[in-house]
Amino acid sequence: MRVAVVQVGYGDGEPVAERTDRVAAMVRGLAGHDLVVLPELWAPEGFAYRGWAERAEGLDGPTMTAMAAAARDAGVVLHAGSIIERAAEGADPGAQGRGLWNTSVLLGPDGARLATYRKVHRFGFGEGEPQLLEAGEDVVTADVPRPATAGDDVRVGLATCYDLRFPELFRRLLDAGARVVLVPAAWPAARVAHWTLLGQARAIEDQVFVVACNTAGTHAGHAMGGFSQVVGPTGEVLAEAGEGEQVLSVELDVDGLDGVRQRFPVLDDRRL
What we know:
This is Carbon-nitrogen family hydrolase. It comes from Angustibacter luteus. GO terms for molecular function: hydrolase activity. Keywords: Hydrolase. Residues 1-254 form the CN hydrolase domain. 24% of the residues lie in helices and 27% in strands. By secondary structure, the chain is an alpha/beta fold. It has a single domain (2-269), classed as 4-Layer Sandwich (Nitrilase/N-carbamoyl-D-aminoacid amidohydrolase), CATH 3.60.110. A 6-stranded mixed beta sheet has the order 6-5-4-3-1-15. Strands 7-8-9-10-13-14 form a 6-stranded mixed beta sheet, covered by helices on one side. A 3-stranded mixed beta sheet has the order 2-11-12, with no helix packed on it. It is globular, with a radius of gyration of 17 Å. It starts with a strand and ends in a 9-residue tail after the last helix.
C-alpha cells in the first residue's frame, strides 16, 4: 500500500482560499498513491480558534468540495484532514448545543465520502476545543480500496491529534479491525517530542501501522511541530519529515502484518 503524507506548512498571511487551491494541487501531484493524508485543520488553522465559527462549513462546503475534486483527479483515497464542521440546518447540534465539531473526512478515488470522524478528545483544558466544539462519540474505521492486483481492501482507523494521548481509543480501533491508523494533527513544536514518542508507542502496543501527519509553519502565535512520521507495527520509523513543508512517500507492507503479529503474539495475551 503506497501512502503519501502531506505535511502542509502555512502562516496567518495565507488566505484560506489560496491555501485550499495550493493543497489541492499538491494532492493532484500525488497520483499513483493508494492513500494521501493531510493534516488536521489545515484550512481553518489549528490554533486559530477565535476564527473557527466564522470558518466553519458543512461537509459539502468549499474545502471538502475542492478536496473531493482533487481526489478524483488524482485517483487516490484522500484523508482530507479535518475541518470545523457546522451542523446542517435542522440537524442535531450535539449534547451541548454548539453544532460545531472537529471533523475528519476520508474520500474515495471517486470523490465520495468513505467515512467521517468527529474528534473524541478535545484539546485545550477547558479553552479552545472544549469551550467551542462538541465532542465526537464514535469509533470510526473504514475500508480503503486498493487496485485489484494489489490485494484486499485495507481497514484503517481514524484518530486526530490529541487522541494520541488516549491509548484506549487505539485499542478500540484495533478491536474494530484496523490495520493502519491515520492521525492528522496540528501538534505544536513545544511538545513535538511527545508527538513522535506517542505515535511510536501506539504502533507498538497495538501492532498497527500509524500514519501521523502534522502541520508545519507558524500560525496564531504557535510554531507547529512538523516531524510527520509513518511507524511500522514493531515501532520502526519507516519515514519521517523535518520541520518544514514536506511530502513523505512510503510503502506499507500491510499484507505482512499478520506475520508480525504471529511472530510476536503479544495481543493474544491481553486479559483486560
